[in-house]
Amino acid sequence: MLLVMGFAATLAIVVGLIHWYLYKRLVRDTLPEGWPRRAGAVAAVLLALLAPTTLVLVREGSVQWLAWPGFLWLALMFYLLVVLAVLEVPRAALLLWWRARRRRTPAGVTATPAQADGAVQAEPAAQQAVAAQAEPPGPAGGVATKGDVATKAGDPPGDGAGTGTDPAHDASRRLLLARGAAIFAGLTAAGAVGYGVRTALGPPQLDRFQVPMAKLPRAMDGTRIAVVSDIHLGPLVPANHAQRITDLINSVDADVVAIVGDLVDGTVEELGASAAPLGRIQARHGTFFVTGNHEYYSGHLPWIEEVQRLGIRVLRNEREELLVRGGALDLAGVNDIGGEEFGDGPDFPTTFAGRDPSRPVVLMAHQPVQARSAAEYGVDLQVSGHTHGGQMVPFNLLVKLEQPVVSGYGTVDGVPVYVTNGAGFWGPPVRVGAPPQVSLLELRAP
């Protein structure tokens, strides 16, 4: 309980600071005092409350109508923050340049707005005095006064006269810079989110990759394993989501299909019908499934029963010998780390007990980091998901802090690991730089 409360408090502080920064750059720096700025402040507070409320209530399934506005704002908030943070560097550099240029203005030189824009039109004070002496008498026959000279020189007395500064003009330049940055950030963030929504809700693409495997018998060269993860059936995905994934997998004529977790975001009662098309997946040697962390949020035991009812074999800390193309291959599967809280976590010793080490083994594990535990068991290949490929660039840089491989092929403690981007999304229905994906791995013998 204390851990949950600590996480909630940290989330509230982080979200609050982000919205204060967005308010400062998008509202306070760009709008005049009065009702426009007050309205912007109210909007910032409401949006700051919307973000964590969406994460909590939608996950509980109690307020599903919040999903679209709440998650879209989360995505827009993220990209506004990223763009504005990047713009801080040129913004600061430009302000420093303006200040340095103002300090270099010689003493006794009259500054005008045109001068501030780069056109030096002032004359030294001594030259102005000479020009004043050459002026004809005034209309009454008198001599022109110093005030007349100042007026003719275009430099009325007051702020900025003879000092090389013009506060009003400086303020207008700051306002122009702030509004330009806000408009650029808004258009860029909106464009990124729009593109990301179209990508996330579109069909998954097929990624083909050849994996060398030293122990693979020559007879098994070219064995095909279709890997899909993070389907995330839920309230925002298209109604035909599972069907088009099934159609794509069936089109590649795979020997084995591996579904490596995070199938759903909801209960069997809510999403059982949406998952039904997965029961029509075709593979020569079967379709297999391991749990992801979201199964444990959604009721893992009912979902394990439902997946088995669909004809998909669930590997729960166990392995199965597959006879493929005249050779033998061990396909192993471990539960996700998220199952530890429910007494259903990964058990590597049980999974690999009594295994013939001369036979190649492919491990299904939802999270790439599980390869560190698998390293001592001689795993030839681990297939994983969980990362979504980062889902929204540059968020992939943060995912790298937790997972050793974010997308594609890599090695973890000597274990070859392939991470698929996943075919769905979690949270914002947005994918930028990491399109939804089904992967087809071809195992190659030496």
How would you characterize this protein structure?
Strand 2, helix 8 (241-250) and strand 3 form a beta-alpha-beta unit. Helices cover 43% and strands 15% of the residues. With 446 residues, it is of the alpha/beta class. The protein is built from 14 helices and twelve strands. The strands form two sheets. Strands 1-12-2-3-4-5 form a six-stranded mixed β-sheet, with helices on one face. Residues 110-164 have low confidence and may be disordered.
Short note summarizing the structure:
The protein contains 14 helices and twelve strands. It has helices at 2-28, 35-60, 67-103, 113-116, 125-133, 146-152, 167-201, 241-250, 268-275, 293-297, 300-309, 348-352, 371-374, 396-399; strands at 205-212, 223-228, 256-260, 287-290, 313-314, 318-324, 327-333, 361-364, 381-384, 408-412, 415-419, 437-444.
Structure keywords:
single chain; 446 residues; alpha/beta; six-stranded mixed β-sheet; 14 helices; 12 strands
SS element count, helices = 14
Q: What form results from the Cα inertia axes? A: elongated
Task: Strand order, main sheet: write it out.
Answer: 1-12-2-3-4-5
Q: Mean pLDDT, nearest integer?
A: 87
Structural class based on helices, strands and sheet pairing: alpha/beta
Number of strands: 12
Write the element-wise H/E pattern from the N-terminal end onward: HHHHHHHEEHEHEHHEEEHEHEHEEE
Please compute the radius of gyration using only Cα atoms: 32 Å
Helix content: 40-55%
Low-confidence stretches: 110-164
Strand content: 5-15%
Distance between the termini: 53 Å
Largest sheet: 6 strands, mixed
